[in-house]
Write a structure and sequence with these properties.
Number of helices: 6
Radius of gyration: 20 Å
Number of strands: 0
Helix content: 40-55%
Order of helices and strands: HHHHHH
C-alpha cells in the first residue's frame, strides 16, 4: 500500500506504469470493477476465520504475474500472500477480466483497427509487419533455437506456428 496506493506513496506514476505496464488510474478501475462484481475479490474471511487478502493485493499479484511472466510464488513475501492463493487469484482474475471486458475489448479487431495498430507500431519501432508471422518482421532472431534455424527467414512467407 505504501509503495503505490497511499497519498504520499513511495513510487510515482511513472514508476507504477513501468512496473505494472499500465496507468495507476486504469489499474484502480479494473480492481474496482472486479471487486464490485466478483465475490472472490470482496473482503471476507477464510475457513480459519482470518481476514482474506483484499482486492488490491489479489489484483496486484495477478497483474504482476501477467506483466512479468513470473510464477505466483515470486510475490508471496512482498504481498503477504501464499503461492497457492497467488495462483488461484490469477485464474479468478483472468476469468473476471474476460467476463467484464469481453464484449468491449476482447473482440476480433476490425481491419481499420489493425491498420492503426500496425501504423503506430511502425512509427514507434520502425519495424514493418507487426501483426504478420515472425518471418515477415524482417528481424534476425539472435537467440533462435537450433532446430528452428533458417526455418523462418526473410522472404520465406510460411505462417509461423507461434501465430
Amino acid at each position: 500500500m505504501r509503495d503505490y496506493f497511499v497519498e504520499d506513496s513511495k513510487f510515482d506514476e511513472t514508476f507504477f506504469r513501468h512496473r505494472f505496464r499500465m496507468s495507476k488510474r486504469l489499474f484502480l478501475k479494473i480492481v474496482g470493477d472486479i471487486e464490485a462484481n466478483f465475490s472472490y475479490f470482496q473482503e471476507g474471511y477464510d475457513a480459519r476465520g482470518k481476514k482474506s487478502c483484499i482486492a488490491l493485493q489479489k489484483c496486484t499479484s495477478a497483474i504482476k504475474q501477467l506483466s512479468t511472466g513470473e510464477p505466483s510464488d515470486a510475490y508471496d513475501g512482498y504481498l503477504c500472500m501464499a503461492a497457492r492463493t497467488g495462483h488461484e487469484t490469477m485464474e479468478y482474475f483472468c476469468d473476471a477480466v474476460v467476463n467484464l471486458y469481453q464484449k468491449e475489448f476482447l473482440r476480433r479487431p476490425t481491419s481499420h483497427g489493425i491498420a492503426l495498430i500496425t501504423q503506430a507500431h511502425e512509427e514507434r519501432h520502425h519495424i514493418p509487419g507487426m501483426l504478420c508471422s515472425l518471418d515477415c518482421t524482417h528481424i534476425e532472431w539472435r537467440m533462435c533455437p537450433r532446430h528452428l534455424k533458417g526455418q523462418y527467414t526473410k522472404g520465406d512467407h510460411k505462417q509461423s506456428p507461434l501465430f
